[in-house]
Specification:
Order of helices and strands: HHHHHHHHHH
Number of strands: 0
Mean pLDDT: 94
Shape: elongated
Distance between the termini: 47 Å
Radius of gyration: 18 Å
Largest sheet: none
Strand content: under 5%
Amino acid sequence: AKAARHVKRGDAYFEKKEYEKGKFEYLSAMRSGQTGLAVVSQLGLTFFELGEAAPASGFLSRAKESDPENLEVRSKLGGLLLAAGQLGNARQEAEFVLSKDAVHQDALLLLAGPSTNRQQLNETRERLESLQQRHATNAFVLLALGHVQLRSGDVTNAQASFKKSVELVRT
């Protein structure tokens, strides 16, 4: 019962973006014997939001092993992998998330980042252009596309994509 109260308070703090307090509650829940998937996932996400990469990576990796379908965990883990220079692994996480949710915001932006060669960059651009045709009002698709266009040296189209993305956000 005590551990459940800690989890409930941790969830409430997380919702209010009071991550330090949430972290304390989730860690208290773990010390009280609550080591289930929900606590591990929330601790990973909390550490991620706090910018504490090392513990976030550990908890998110454990959460992914237990629940490989958790898209939020996998997209955040992908962001950490990208930051750590593990481009291939980051791209795999983005690809998995996008296979389940084609317009997942974090995964779209993650996909735009770790292209390691020209062929991969072109494939990413084609994929995003196709998505843009199907999801013309999705600002994140346009933002990711603009990023890839810019990395490809296509400044004119990148500017147009960025401009349209901003217009969509404003409306």
